[in-house]
Automatic annotation (TrEMBL):
Residues 89-171 form the PDZ domain. It comes from Chitinimonas lacunae. This is S41 family peptidase. Residues 403-462 are annotated as: Disordered. Coiled coil: none annotated.
């Protein structure tokens, strides 16, 4: 059991591989008996290989041809399977510690272009104004089309304090946009917290890292100390959290769930891919095991709201789904990304690996997250920025080319029908509508910034706080009876 656990503890739980690699490192390759080789297909492959070697306009190295063949084999399976060359493999192992070089982007490859899943808070990409759904078409003077995802990411990485220019296609813009970003060491501050009001706490988790369980537990302790009494309610904000280390998702869920409650289970073809992870210290990982010692006992029962949106992926969806299925929290926001597949890092040779999809995630209630995501209990749209709805920029797993299907049937977010005013029947041109005075809501929408913690400027957070207050009233009424 211990060996099986050790292998599973390094499974990937991120939304994708990009300038931010949200993954863990690495399970050993399976030693199952190899299937018979498809001789006819291999003959075709070797014939194509020989034709390219002999007839291509320029000489091509064998290593390049083999690597590109592996890249094509894996990228054709689904958006999350990939070949990791030595440099990418090294970056993968470094990034889970929460500090790495780059721009701070979570990206996927779509239609030959790099699509932004989410910019990470407090990074060059977020500060420059890169938005979810942006398509990166050029990196400096190099067109992205034709590059593999790893090659594109490699060009965006570089020494700190060096510049890179991204040319971006954005929905609603008639011309490409250019952003000049300064590379830096990305130190993702995984957890932020504060008191929203007396008795009501707030914890923001930006990415699931190796130490996230410990960081969330410490935040809970400090909120209790700041409040000096038991908390009346807590908001756990997982919006735009692209995922990360699977053990951290189990650990964070374990803080709020009863002991031994099922958090998530996986199902795949091999015995090692069929695993049930519970709210137990043995599944939390080395950094989270001691995080529960000083936690207030009341945290298991404090009213809880989880905030999610389309940028909440994988590990975030595991936590939201577990807390929702156990009726432990009310989920508020918009439907999540829908990345419900497990990637295992399988070493190839001494210094490279493949990231291969090996299983699907399921919530404790048996729901597949893949291409569906988590549907909130209370749907609340995000506040627009400069009058533009962020939902228009969102991309989900179901929108990605070659995405893995959901065995229970896909469930894309339903698009709301446009509201159109009836056209006037007369030939008389209608008088222009009088301009409405600017309201407090208009001011609030324009001033909202990504990552900002403000109840007044954030309708989703405002609704979360309202839910907690209603629960307080209902609880007191029930007690009085």
């Amino acid at each position: 059991m211990q060996a099986k656990l050790q292998k599973f503890s390094w499974l990937v739980a991120g939304a994708g591989v990009g300038a931010l690699l949200t993954a863990g490192v690495s399970a050993l390759a399976s030693k199952d008996t190899l299937s018979p080789l498809p001789l006819n297909e291999l003959r075709a492959f070797t014939e194509v290989y020989d034709r390219v070697k002999q007839n291509y306009v320029e000489p091509v190295e064998d290593k390049k041809l083999i690597n590109e063949a592996i890249n094509g084999m894996l990228s054709g399976l689904d958006p999350h399977s990939a070949y990791l060359d030595p440099e990418s493999y090294k970056d993968l192992r470094v990034s889970t510690a929460g500090e790495f070089g780059g721009l701070g982007l979570e990206v996927n490859l779509e239609d030959g272009l790099v699509r932004v899943v989410s910019p990470i808070e407090d990074t060059p990409a977020a500060r420059a104004g890169i938005k979810p759904g942006d398509l990166i078409m050029k990196i400096d003077e190099t067109p992205v089309r034709g590059l593999s995802l790893n090659e594109a990411v490699s060009k965006m990485r570089g020494k700190p304090n060096t510049q890179v220019v991204l040319t971006v296609l954005r929905k609603g813009e008639t011309k490409p946009l250019q952003f000049t970003l300064m590379r830096s060491i990305i130190k993702v501050q995984s957890v932020k917290f504060k008191m929203l009001e007396p008795g009501f706490g707030y914890i923001r988790l930006a990415q699931f890292q190796e130490r996230s369980t410990e960081d969330v537990a410490r935040a809970v302790e400090k909120l209790y100390k700041e409040n000096k009494t038991a908390l009346k309610g807590l908001v756990l904000d997982l919006r735009n959290d692209p995922g990360g280390v699977l053990n951290a998702a189990v650990g964070v869920s374990s803080i709020f769930l009863p002991d031994d409650a099922l958090v998530v289970y996986t199902d795949g073809r091999t015995p090692d891919s069929k695993v049930r992870l519970t709210a137990s210290r043995e599944f939390v990982g080395r950094d989270g095991k001691d995080s529960f010692k000083s936690l207030p006992r009341e945290i298991k029962n404090v009213p809880l709201v989880v905030l999610v949106n389309a940028g909440s992926a994988s590990a975030s969806e595991i936590v939201a789904g577990a807390l929702q299925d156990h009726k432990r929290a009310v989920v508020v926001g918009t439907q999540t990304f829908g990345k419900g597949s497990v990637q295992t890092i399988l070493p190839v040779g001494k210094d490279s690996a493949i990231k291969l999809t090996t299983a699907r995630y399921f919530t404790p209630g048996g729901r597949s997250i893949q291409a569906k995501g988590i549907v909130p209990d209370i749907e609340v749209e995000e506040a627009p920025i400069n009058g533009v709805s962020l939902e228009a920029f969102r991309i989900r797993e179901a929108d990605l080319e070659h995405h893995l299907n959901n065995p229970q049937g896909e469930n894309r977010p339903e698009s709301k029908p446009e509201t159109r005013q009836p056209e006037p029947k007369s030939d008389t041109k209608p008088a222009p509508a009088p301009k409405k005075p600017r309201s407090d809501k208009d001011e609030r929408d324009e001033e909202l910034k990504p990552g900002e913690i403000s109840v007044k400027k954030d309708p989703q957070l405002q609704q979360a706080l309202n839910v907690l207050k209603v629960q307080q009233v209902v609880g007191r009424t029930a007690t009085a009876k």
